[in-house]
TrEMBL record:
Keywords: Kinase, Transferase. SUPFAM superfamilies: Nucleotide cyclase (SSF55073), PYP-like sensor domain (PAS domain) (SSF55785). GO terms for molecular function: diguanylate cyclase activity; kinase activity. InterPro entries: Diguanylate_Cyclase (IPR050469), GGDEF_dom (IPR000160), Nucleotide_cyclase (IPR029787), PAS-like_dom_sf (IPR035965), PAS_4 (IPR013656), Rev_trsase/Diguanyl_cyclase (IPR043128). The keyword Zinc does not apply. Its EC number is 2.7.7.65. Pfam families: GGDEF (PF00990), PAS_4 (PF08448). It comes from Marinobacter oulmenensis. It is an enzyme of class 2 (transferase). This is diguanylate cyclase.
């Protein structure tokens, strides 16, 4: 008759659990030689326990950040306390490919890592245990949500037709530029312009063709201003540009470039080719305006003068 040894049974249960659990388990001595390597690690690395046993971890995985992991392990061993690192701090320790079909958009497995001290018979820490958790599904969902939120934030300030800033977002920048002038005295110039006879474009060619003209105007504007400048669609066929650290003459040169480029271009639509022009008003910020709205109004007065003066021109006020 055979007798069962409870301690032996418990040991086999423990080994079986460590081999099948969906968590990576790695035991290292303080020289970073691998002492244990469970089934999770075998499955995702393609390296068996017998192949890696007693080998230095960094020799097998040279892309592991040696300095970073060494500091972590040294602190765990010295303080005899656990350390934890999330995927947000470091996406992964082991560069395993993502094999989950649900999160197939992620190339690599995102991992959380726990490092625990292991004491020998003397009570001194002589090994550490790394627990590697696959958190790809959670990380992927969070990253997708963050991307969606970023996209919503961008859409909330963007004019859908042109890709320029919408009126609210652009006016906020005008206000900020005005306050910067009040505080630091840096020169800045505001530009307001619109498309001449735009109603005639819509009446003759239709609103879809009119949209093409508006988009073309935005593209020409963006291609002729600097990265530090801010263009927005103010409404309908009217646009605005903020030119920081620019005086009226510098703004006039930029605006003449935009005006000429538009005058010399042709917008091809399904209803025919469209040639058009713009009228531009420019206002350099000085001590006169008491708020950004008065600055806007002054640039708009320049636009009105350009219209009254025959259109297709730039007026500085």
């Amino acid at each position: 008759m055979a007798f069962k040894n409870p301690q032996t049974d418990s040991f086999h249960w423990l080994v079986d659990m460590l081999e099948t659990v969906e968590v990576g388990l790695v035991v290292l001595d303080l020289d970073f030689r691998v002492q244990a390597w469970n089934g999770f690690m075998e499955n995702h690395s393609g390296i068996t326990s017998s192949q890696i046993n007693d080998r230095v971890l960094f020799e097998v995985f040279p892309d592991i950040p040696e300095g970073w992991l060494t500091r972590k392990v040294d602190a765990v061993a010295m303080l005899n306390t656990r350390a934890f690192t999330s995927w947000e701090q470091r996406p992964y320790l082991f560069k395993f490919r993502n094999t989950r079909p649900i999160t197939g958009t992620e190339e690599y497995m995102f991992q959380n890592l726990t490092i625990s001290p292991l004491s020998g018979p003397t009570g001194e820490v002589d090994r550490v245990c790394l627990l590697v958790y696959d958190v790809t599904e959670f990380a992927s969902s969070k990253r997708a949500l963050e991307r969606a939120n970023d996209k919503l934030a961008t859409l909330s300030i963007t004019d859908r037709l042109t890709g320029l800033l919408n009126r609210g977002a652009w006016e906020n920048l005008v206000d900020a530029e005005y306050e910067r002038f009040r505080r630091y005295g840096q020169s800045a110039t505001l530009v307001m312009f619109d498309i001449d006879h735009f109603k005639k474009v819509n009446d003759t060619h239709g609103h879809l063709a009119g949209d093409e003209v508006i988009r073309h105007t935005a593209q020409v504007t963006l291609s002729n201003i600097r990265q530090t400048d801010s263009a927005g669609r103010y409404g309908g066929e009217e646009f605005g540009v903020i030119l920081p650290e620019t005086d009226a003459e510098g703004a006039r040169i930029i605006c003449e470039r935009i005006r000429t480029a538009i005058e010399e271009s042709t917008v091809k639509t399904t209803t025919g080719d469209i040639r058009y022009t713009i009228s531009v008003g420019i206002s350099q910020l000085e001590e006169g305006p008491e708020n950004y709205m008065q600055w806007l109004q002054k640039a708009d007065e320049g636009l009105y003068e350009a219209k009254e003066g025959g259109r297709n021109r730039v007026v500085v006020v």
